[in-house]
Amino acid sequence: MSDFIKYANSFQAIARLRLESITALLEILGNPQKNLSFVHVAGTNGKGSVCVFLQNILSLSGMKCGRYTSPNMIDVCERINIDGENISSDDMERIINYVKSAADEVCKKFGEGPTPFEIWTAAAFCYFYEKKCDIVVLETGLGGVRDATNVIPAPKIAVITRIAMDHTEYLGDTLSEIAAAKSGIIKSGSKTVTLRQSAEIMKVIENRCKECGCPLIVAGEAKNEGFDKIYEKFSYGDINNIVCGLGGVNQVENASLAIECAKIFGISDAVIRRGIARAKNMGRFEIVSENPLIIFDGAHNKNGIAALAKSLKRYFGEKNITFVSGVMADKKYGEMLDVLKENGYGKIRTVTVKNNPRALDAEAFAAAARAKGFEARSYESIKTALEKTDEITVICGSLYLYKDFAEETEYLKK
Question: Are 117 and 148 in contact (CB under 8 A)?
């Protein structure tokens, strides 16, 4: 691991939801974010997919489009991307070293350094400004109103994806409180795009838009036209014959949000169709092996697991499926297990996510699964958990598992 990665990951790992330190950091760096235009994306599920769909569309339209997302799957350079190309390790090291001196000054002022996420966010803004991006698609880290990304001026568009109970220790114990936190990215001068959500959530979003004087666009229903393997075919509005480049039933609503944003920019139907089709995003209902058939899905909460189960039923019917899963101890993994059980699934092989202090021990997870009626056994690694199964295998529970899968197996190297 190079020095710059060690440096950027050396700060406190716990989220610190405040804007004071990131604001001070960026002021020292010359406030690069004030010279950029943004589409800001918040929500519980689908943020990363919306960002990928939209970046592909905007790049194909001729814009130089930056994308900032988290967490990374294998390489930290995945977080900062322009027109589909990740920042190089050399550029990342250079930018991080540039941010480091400013971070030291912030530490003197506040008595503590910026968090890793604040470091990455500042580095992304510096890089996108240096490379003269026309537009940046920016994913929030946690929440919205006090998330480090919310230091930006009013975005061109604020996007609110599907909202569910999420990070309650930080965002609140009700859907209204969580929706309020995530709707904090909506600012005067922005347009807001969302999808039809529960009445409780819609009320919060609508009220925020009224307070800020922002037009609210609610994505409509797409017309289903079947699927090819795991990729949905659909029509949306006047755009026909759209094929999702990302697998899974839930990607249609994510693509619809990206389409509504693209319409605001005046992008043609043909470019929109091509952008949706060519989108790729690691770890989101991704076929990582054809033979044997292994699917990786980063679903890590109740809603994500429900979407995963819906996709599996659609594409594979009642075929037997074995799950390989590792979770964070602070997640409501019991609810995830309940959803799998309700959908008729009963086999799970548990692993411990490597090098993560938040990870739940594999045997503790297996015991929790057995208590709910699963045939469950813990394994030392993903590699051993994948051995001796001739059924469809689905890896899920945490995006952090993707790096373990890449390092322990040869599937992604083929």
Answer: yes
Contact 350, 316 (CB under 8 A): no
List the structure tokens of 108. 């003197």
Kindly report, residue by residue over 128-138, the tens digit of the pLDDT.
999 999 999 99
Residue 114 CA: distances (Å) to CA of 24, 122, 157: 10, 10, 27
Give 112 or 174, the one with higher predicted confidence.
174
DSSP, residue by residue, 266-328: T--HHHHHHHHHH---TTSSEEEETTTTEEE----SHHHHHHHHHHHHHHHTT--EEEEE--B
d(CA 104, CA 113): 7
Kindly write down the DSSP assignment for every residue of 339-404, as one continuous string: HHHHTT--EEEE-PPTT-TTBPPHHHHHHHHHHTT-EEEE-SSHHHHTSS--SEEEEES-TTHHHH
Other Cβ atoms within 10 Å of 265 Cβ, number: 17
Averaged pLDDT, 102-117: 86
Which residue do the tokens 């993560």 mark? 356
Q: Which residues contact 67 (CB under 8 A, 6 or more apart)?
A: 51, 52, 55, 80, 81, 82, 136, 137, 138, 139
- CA–CA distance, 184 with 160 (Å, rounded to integer): 10
- Collapsing DSSP to helix, strand or coil, 208 comes out as helix
Cα torsion angle, 236, 300, 200, 263, sign: negative
What is the helix (H) or strand (E) element at residue 100, kind and residue range? helix 89-110
Structure token pair of residue 412: 């992604």
Q: What distances in angstroms separate CA 336 from CA 73, 109, 136, 208, 331, one per listed residue?
A: 21, 43, 33, 31, 9
Contacts of 96 (CB under 8 A, 6+ apart): 4, 7, 8, 119, 123
**Residues near 345 by beta carbon (within 8 Å), at least 6 away in sequence:** 309, 321, 323
Tens-place pLDDT, residues 197-218: 999 999 999 999 999 999 999 9
pLDDT digits (tens, 9 = 90+) for 368-378: 999 999 999 99
